[in-house]
Amino acid sequence: MKQQLIEQIKDFKNLLKKEIDLNLFFKLISHCTDGEGYGRVSHYANNLTVKDWLDLYKNVQVNVNDDQIIEFFEYLRKYYSTYFHKVNGQTYAVGKRFDTKESEKFELEQIVFYSINL
Fold first, then answer.
1. For range 60-76, the mean pLDDT
2. Residues 13 and 112: beta-carbon distance below 8 Å
3. Contacts from 98-103 at CB under 8 Å and sequence distance 24+?
4. Where are the domains of the chain?
5. Which of 74, 69, 93 is nearest to 83 (CA)?
6. Euclidean distance between CA atoms 42 and 59, whole angstroms
7. Cα(117)–Cα(38) distance, rounded to whole angstroms?
8. Structure confidence at residue 43 (pLDDT)
9. What single DSSP character describes residue 97?
């Protein structure tokens, strides 16, 4: 458990190095189910290629690049695999059960961000 927590903290710090601060992190989370049905399979809210994610986020004025999309979803699928998946090695998917309003799921990320930026 302790080792996994340390690894997750290090991985989140890597997101920060990719210029995904807490504000951008939560914008990406908040809009990951926007446009439900786009690329949808019955148990996914969204199942999109990196290019399609870029387009989705561009439509809601969230500026992000392809490397950030990849790092973001790789992190989420590693630590929140109940909701985030990589499908056939080509698309990133968000499960329909994921509720973007449940930001308390990301308490660790908030603690890490604020402890680094105090």
1. 97
2. yes
3. 98/32, 98/33, 98/45, 100/29, 100/30, 100/31, 100/32, 100/33, 103/26, 103/29
4. 2-116
5. 93
6. 23
7. 37
8. 79
9. T
CB 41 within 8 A of CB 104: no
Q: What percent of the chain has pLDDT over 90?
A: 70
SS3 of 63-84: the string is CCCHHHHHHHHHHHHHHCCCCE
Residue-level pLDDT at 38: 52
Is the distance from CB of 76 to CB of 15 less than 8 angstroms? no
Residue 55 is given by DSSP the state: H
pLDDT tens profile 9-51: 999 999 999 999 999 999 999 999 887 555 555 678 899 999 9
